[in-house]
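Worked example

This section walks through a single chain of length 546. The input is the sequence exactly as stored; nothing has been trimmed or padded.
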Amino acid sequence: MRRSDEMESMAVVVVLMAARRRRRRSKKDGKRQGEIILKKKEKGGRRRYGEEDNMKRKREEEQAKVPAEKRGKMARRETTVQIVAGSYERVLHGINATISLDEEKSKGRPEDVGEGEDQVKFTDTFLFQAHTSAVRCLALSPMPSADNKQQQNVLLATGGTDDRINLYSLSVSPMSADTGLVPLPSLAGNKVLENPRNRELGALMHHSASITAMHFPTRSKLLSASEDNTIAVTRTRDWTVVSSIKAPHPKTQGRPSGDTAPVGGAPAGINDFAVHPSMKLMLTVGKGEKSMRLWNLVTGRKAGVLNFGREVLTAAKEGKWGTGEGRKIRWDSAGEEFAVAFERGIVVFGVDSVPKCRVATSPFTKVHHISYLDIETDDEKKQLLVASTEDGRLVFYSTAPDSLEELVEGGDTTIPTAPFLFQLGGKAHGQSSRIKEFEILPLQENSKTIQFIVVTSGSDGALRIWTIKPEEIQQTKQAKRGKSSKPGQPVQVGRLLGAYETGNRITCMKAFIMREPIGEEELSEGDSEEDDDDDEDEDDEDSDSS
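Given that input, the structure is written out below as tokens.
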């Protein structure tokens, strides 16, 4: 019995050992198979990753072959406009308007007013009380070069009736949506996104009366005019007044006998000034003066005076009880002519100060702002005179010598009339109130203007953005040349893209087209560069003081 039991136990041990060996073999085989599978996967993965790298490399090579302008066009089909508006309520308001450039959305006629309103997205960037009284005028410095990475900002100057000029630095690039900055809350329901690159620089208080006009001829100089009959030239490097031009006070002529104004209380001050493109001459028009003055900016002295004769005042629709003073004055970009805007009319002078033509709005209304627009049609560059009116229109005129209308015998003046070409806006097209100021910004691709972005502002507190295509201007001029338009019916151009209600009575406005949005890395780099600039300015001040 014992022998049989021992044999059975040995058999059980042998079976168990055999089973253990089989399990070990199966584990080894499984491990080997797993290693083989992993190796195959790694090999296939390396092959797949290599294919992706090759495809990525091919895409980069194809993109490198495409010009930079076309890549920007393919990557970004929208543009951002920085708008700055001042108001009677002492408020300075900054808005970013992002405009979609989708061709299908931008199709439409001028009559389709509400069709493109979803093409513009408005974002508040700053909103505060900049002055202790009404903001009267604004000025923006020229855009810096795109190659200068350390100077990607523009200078903003605001002038008010509190005799102050406030100075600010604005970024030329909007904030990107992926910067991680949380939009600020707003009770008005508007989207608010503050740009950390925007900052305050200080204030200038060298004028003793309300600021009436300002202009940056270059980034290094700021010219400011005031009701104290002075024009100050300020150097922007250290904000020092380097020169001051003093205009004489006007003589009190034709004032009513019952006028109780005190001595020296007669209307005085400079309404507006215009710097010649050569930066050597300047024209000014002032209150209580039926004349304009020519100044030599090289010497800072008066170079001449041109009185407005009866013929000029008649052409400008200045009646017997009119002031006869120029309200606005502008040079064209070539410096060959300048326009003087009166209360209800405009007279264009040549470089020899001889009246060239006149502009009479139809229907007869007040003129608030004027500007020259450079256009290029049929490989030919021309300029149009643009004026904003009391009835909410932008009217376009041609001042070219070959386009002036013939004189009518027995007329009240011998000055030719500039032909009316077309208009933008009006009561029937979304603009019923007066346009105080406007900006026409050319949007370019491949050094060619693809459309004009027009920003208008008025006392109703609304900012409106329009678009005009060069093809519309070309077709309108051809129709005018062929006399195909209906007589008495104005030709409408442009299309309303969107409107923004500020809630304030706007007195002045400036705008410029911004560049590519900035991200977090560029933002931090920009902050460090600004700190470096501040350190350099402090070093310069220390060296000057020593």
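What to look for: The two ends are 121 Å apart (CA to CA).
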